[in-house]
Amino acid sequence: MSESTDCAYCGCDVTVHDPVYVREGDASAETPYCNYGCLAAHIEEEGLAVGTTCSVDL
I want to staple 2 with a disulfide (CB 3.0 to 4.6 A). Which of 16, 25, 28, 30 is the partner? Predict the structure, then answer.
């Protein structure tokens, strides 16, 4: 897990919550979030899901 215990979104100590750790691409470092709520708020505020789609072949 990441050395940092501060939530990347709100700055709270993630160890007192149900933390979520995100790793992007091939990066070995993980970004900590308090929970899925902070992660979802970060995604929404940064527009990270705008213009993205998933393709599922059934």
Answer: 30
